[in-house]
């Protein structure tokens, strides 16, 4: 049978210790209500002794939620404990979290206390707290740099004094999965009265091991895991609770643990906390990052199109995200391109796909991100090419003249494959190019309109050029799209000229030139 793991969320206390984060009462209440939806068992709402504002927020949170137990942190001194008692006066389902450091470094350098003094302080404070609360968590701060025997000794004493939860924090993210699991095994095997309490783990991520250490503790017998949504917290942060929850769900086959977490609430909770704390979620963050369910490479995209389980161990819907995403880029393959066209409502044959894919790769080499507008534009390029009549733009080069004018050398391909060169000078590059085309093709017309706009997003967006030319009373338009707007400008102009010569007898000769 699966055992239950309790989730203790300290986003509102340790999470608020993230440099630069400051949550007011309203924000704490809003987050707490979300945490309740997420199925958190215990919410640490703050540190009542820290300020009158935090005491008020802790109280407001306790009044706002109904299901989770709400606790406040307190140092091992009467003043801090009294602040918690005061904050929770008259509110049910509240508790206290008392801590004192146990490691030699903290005892000697910070507290200036002997082992005996630390134990006596802990007993005195836990006893006092237990007179006011039925839920009393006691934490051995910096447990992972403390002597195991001392942890056992203080644990036995605080259990006797009335502690109901014992927490062994890896305060500075120093431990490793093997070592942390040995700590829990040692406490479980050697501590008198341990069967009466819940053992808890609390991991910081200084060496990137917070999730591994938490899961090792759970495997070794910890029944409660403490952490913050989005992994925020002091320094490198606390373990990201959503990672532990997703792991226990995904690997239930191995860990066989139940939790009260409503996984589909994860995305909403993460977004709210990111917004209210101002701490953004890195795109590659496990479970909640923007890229966590996004596939970018052709081989992976092909696999996911065939069956999502090839590259997804967790469904995005399970944790409240909308869907698996395939992003088109330089590394995508034909199958992903075809699927995107289909999603956009275009039916593409295999032959068309071969042609489009070549153009797509050419575009992807030039552009960082490919948007839907880009691939639709590729289809349009294709149909423009099909309509192509007499002339096609080949290439050009530009010179800046000493008088700041431009000289353009334009190469145009005729239907029979021969190349025409035109040379033109103008006060800008497009002016010079258009004069070069006119000169090469010996065609007179007036440019009536020239418009340019970007089709998709970003600095490397595709440009669309629209031109209108006039010959006699007739107007002819041309349109072209390309990453290079100079190329697009020349192609659009030549397209307009193709239309002109196709209906203008005067230029019929031009076709056979
Ligand atoms: C591992 C953790 O995350 S612990 C939680 C950390 N969170 C916070 O500190 C946020 C809230 N803190 C605060 O607002 C302030 O630090 C307060 C109001 C709690 C205390 O402020 P001050 O009284 O000015 O003390 P200050 O913060 O400068 O120093 C801490 C004092 O508490 C003592 N102390 C530290 N931990 C404990 C403890 N668990 N039990 C008893 N005393 C402790 C220190 O030795 C120091 O004592 P000293 O003044 O005699 O040297
Ligand atoms: C107060 C304790 C539980 C803590 O946050 C830590 O040791 O990291
Ligand atoms: Mg902490």
From TrEMBL:
Its cofactor is Mn(2+). Residues 5-267 form the Pyruvate carboxyltransferase domain. Residues 392-513 are annotated as: Regulatory domain. GO terms for cellular component: cytoplasm. Mn(2+) binds at residues 14, 202, 204, 238. It comes from the Bacteria. It catalyses: 3-methyl-2-oxobutanoate + acetyl-CoA + H2O = (2S)-2-isopropylmalate + CoA + H(+). One of its GO terms (molecular function) is 2-isopropylmalate synthase activity. One of its GO terms (biological process) is L-leucine biosynthetic process. Its EC number is 2.3.3.13. Pathway: Amino-acid biosynthesis; L-leucine biosynthesis; L-leucine from 3-methyl-2-oxobutanoate: step 1/4. Keywords: Acyltransferase, Amino-acid biosynthesis, Branched-chain amino acid biosynthesis, Cytoplasm, Leucine biosynthesis, Manganese, Metal-binding, Transferase. Pfam families: HCS_D2, HMGL-like, LeuA_dimer. The keyword Acyltransferase applies. SMART domains: LeuA_dimer (SM00917). Homodimer. Belongs to the alpha-IPM synthase/homocitrate synthase family. LeuA type 1 subfamily. Catalyzes the condensation of the acetyl group of acetyl-CoA with 3-methyl-2-oxobutanoate (2-ketoisovalerate) to form 3-carboxy-3-hydroxy-4-methylpentanoate (2-isopropylmalate). This is 2-isopropylmalate synthase. The gene is leuA.
